[in-house]
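DUF2254 domain-containing protein (Sorangium cellulosum), 551 aa
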Amino acid sequence: MSSDRTAGEDEGTRRRGAALARIWLRPMSYLLGVSMATLSVVYLLDIARHGNERLPIREALLHMSPSDAEHIMGGIGEVIAAILGIVITVASIIVQLAANRYTPRITEMFFRDRTNMVVMGFFVVSAVFSLWVNFSIRVGEGSTEHAFVPTYGVLVTMGLLTASLLMMAPYFLYVFDFVEPDNVVGRIKRSGIEQALRPADHESDGEVDERRVTALSSLEQLADVALNAIDQKDKGIASKTVDSLSELVVAYLPHKATLDPRWFQIRDRLANDADFVSMNAEALGKLSATRTWLEYKALRQFLMVYREALTAMPDLITRIAIDTRYIGQTAIAAGDRAAVAVVVKFFNTYMRRSLNAKDIAAAYNNLNQYRYLAEELLKAGWGDQVLDIARYFKYYAQTAHAMGLAFLTETVAFDLCVVNERAYDLHAPARDELLQLFLEVDKEAELDQQEPSLRGVRKAQVKLATYYLQKGEEALARRIYRDMRDERPDRLRSIRAELLAVTSNEFWEINDRGAVFEYIEPERRQLIHRFFEWFPSTTMREPIREEHTQE
């Protein structure tokens, strides 16, 4: 864990070094080089003029009368004050425009930024220094006895003015870079990770609570950016922000075991958060006991974005589902069962939102990522969690069936088919229970429009039967047969015909899965006949010829 953290710190140092060179060092070096080259050429031309041949540069720069110094400093003070005014005005306008577009908290971030404070401080110090150097000049009113020329003060002021002018262009570049969406999102994400993973050695309870609130604020800021991006139809920024929310949690999960126990307690200012204050004491206690408040808060932000994306930016739904799966996979790798349970709960909530909206595409894409998570749980040997997910799949399939959303019931069936295949390959102890849940998905149609969903379930079950037969597991295939033997003969015949007709796995439309549910590999397709031979001959007496077209 320490090596991962060190690698992250090294990466952050390299990134800051690259930004320093790109924004500050190169532009200032170029500008200074051009200015000095131009000055050198002009100076050489000047000393080449008649009468100036023997005037050394030291004499030209250092020798000045009180009136010369007064005249120089008067102009310099005005220029530095003008630069400060221009910088503040332009920066304020840029930051305010960015705040209106992304999140109002950009303003707070900007004026707390260390680089910004250093630059602003430099301009202010330069202006104050020039003011007092100008004040210290004494002409002497005709007598040199009381005259005072702050020669080095004037030279330093000239240097400060030069640096101020050279810094203007890089500073504006820095401001634009600061409010660039990817950088804003990345800065918020890094702040959240830093607050979460900072060692709590010798910190008071108040300091720990401050860090928790700051980390929570980072999650909310990212959600604000995503919501504003959705409102402005900016898919790129919305996707980047959703990814950053996930990356923050993914970076946090592996290090939870090393954190101070006080970090996980929901109390003080953290307990006053809107997402926690509405929860009862039992629910809050469970979040504290399972150490999952940060994961819960992050996924709550996902849910808020999900709700808006359902109608305004449907393409973002898949991104949210993928990033939720990434959080779940990281929790599996960390052995954090409580965090996995939170991820599963939010996947279920996504499904409920999709079904309530009757958004088939959203539910279809959620199921795809949800199934991937179940497969990862199987690989990790977490069979109990996979059984829970299979029960949820069964529930959503039957709910979609009742709502007349036949395609979703069929989607769940084929996803459960894949989960059963993976369970067999991995010799999962939950294999038999998963098969039983799969066989319970279908039920007799109550309405005519529900018939297609039941046919889809039966097709998925036949597909799984051919898989078992290919593996030499006739007993498992017989379990599927016994569940299907009371089906109507005409339905069985049509199911067999439709499965045999699909000979290509290339779907004719664009989708995230890129495959045809009913497709069965050629070596397995021959086993369809063997499976249906078990049914009474009177049931399957009509010959079925295998088609050679996908449709």
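Confidence is low (pLDDT under 50) at residues 1-9, 445-450, 546-551. Residues 400-551 form one domain. ok done for today
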